[in-house]
Amino acid sequence: MSLAVAAALFFAVPAVAHAQNGRIRGTVRDASGDALAGVTIRAQGTAAPHRATTASDGSYTVSNLTPGTYVVSASLPGLRTQSQANVRVSADAETVVDFVMQALQLEAVTVTAMLREQRLADVPFSIAAPTEQALRVRGADNIEAVAANVAGFSVQNLGPGQSQVAMRGASSGQIARDQPGVKEQVGAYFDESPVSLSLFTPDVDLFDVSRVEVLRGPQGTLFGAGSLAGTVRYISNQPELGVSSTFGEVGGHWVDGGGPGSTAKIGVNAPLGQHAAARIVGYSNRTGGWMDAVQPDFTVNRDVNGSDKAGLRAAVRLQPNERFSITPRIFVQRVRADGWNRIDAFNILANPYTTSRRPVTLGNRQLFTQINEPYTDDFLLGDVNWQYKFGGATLTSITSYTHRNILVVRDATALTASVMGGTLGLSDRVYTLDSPLNDTTRSKVWTQELRLTGASRKLRWLVGGFYAKS
Asked: How far apart are the first and last CA of the chain?
């Protein structure tokens, strides 16, 4: 009896496999006829949906389909979702379904704000999600430029790499990082990993970033402490299996009345066999300065607030089957600036009232400094994201390590001299003593998140836990 059952099962397997060999293939292009890569294709039948992603030439194939009728849709953030109903698939046959995608004028249609893919219209809170295409058209390459096009979201520029984010007018304030235990009010995430720090939100370059999700309002349920006012998520492009591509951009600019700047960025996506792929992105930006610093010897240092930003992101995706995938990644970035875009309303260090120096009248873009005021920000993020799908649920684990080393040097001579000379009545020599203010911030954060998500026709659920040590 046991042998008979085993034999029956053995011969039943090929029959099922034979019945699931229908295919849907096609090509996705934009309105101008150019191929679109990275478009998500879904074939929804009576069972669980089947998915595929278009290659660099816009082609796709959805295989192992049981005979029947399907609804096939194509979606890409920033473009209008297209679908075709009543697509019939037969055994041992191939059905061709092509799409032409139209651009959306405003926001993305597919987001992961609730830690699952869903249409923008289905998210039950206020969200904006400018896409890679929209950011490129607007010329946005940092979070400050994103805020210029999103209502209720503002960024105060305190210098290169020192963006203070506010959501609906709420922010942590400039002194929050000096107060132990005080959390930021707007959280920042790079994909699934938290990268926020009270005052200094990382100035992430938006090259090869799929979209930026701006979640307005309290997000503590899904994103924990530090997201009282909202959350900003950088969603990067992931390694693509079976796709070989190289992309990049170069550019230059010149600040009127200031210095030159340049941009050089390059990215590579390479398959590593059938079940793995790597994606590496590197960039270097030089922003020209426009502030001049007058020195005690009356020489002038030109364009002292110029800055450099260079970074590297590398990720490897391993996907031995449709159910399991693991993606380790490393992200390093260094921001360096030579000075500040500060304007001195009154020059307390060189005037006839407080010093014996020759009076110096500062121009519109000039400041008086006795020492150099450099700024450096070294940022490191390493994380591992793995997913396993079983039944109607998905188990996700994200382990991340973040290290930041920030050094801010300020010339505090004007402050100390005004107190010691103006208040205590000391001689004018106090106005010529160098008074550097070195402000160092070092941060090391380990995080671990584990969550289980699932959905049915009438219910979507999520359960998980999050641990952080800093």
From this structure: 62
The dihedrals phi and psi of 458, each to the nearest 5 degrees, come to: -115, 0
* pTM score: 0.70
Nearest C-alpha neighbor of 73 from the set 114, 119, 115 = 119
* Residue reference for tokens 């029956």: 8
Asked if 374 and 439 count as a contact pair (C-beta separation under 8 A), the reply is no
Residues 6 or more apart whose Cβ sits within 8 Å of residue 30 = 36, 79, 100, 101, 102, 103
Distance CA 162, CA 177 (A): 12
Q: Each residue of 120-132: pLDDT tens digit?
A: 555 555 556 666 7
Residue 208, CA atoms < 13 Å, CB-side half-sphere:
26
Identity of residue 197: L
Amino acid symbol at 247:
F
DSSP 358: P
- Report which of residues 155 and 235 the model is more confident about: 235
| Cα dihedral 337, 193, 470, 221 in deg (nearest 10) | 120
142 phi and psi angles, rounded to 5 deg: -155, 175
Q: How far apart are CA 161 and CA 340, in angstroms?
A: 12
**For residues 149 and 130, what is the distance between their CA atoms, to the nearest angstrom?**
9
Q: Which domains does the chain have, with CATH numbers?
A: 2-101 (2.60.40.1120), 110-236 (2.170.130.10), 291-297+309-469 (no CATH)
Q: Which of 231, 234, 288, 238 is nearest to 263 (CA)?
A: 288
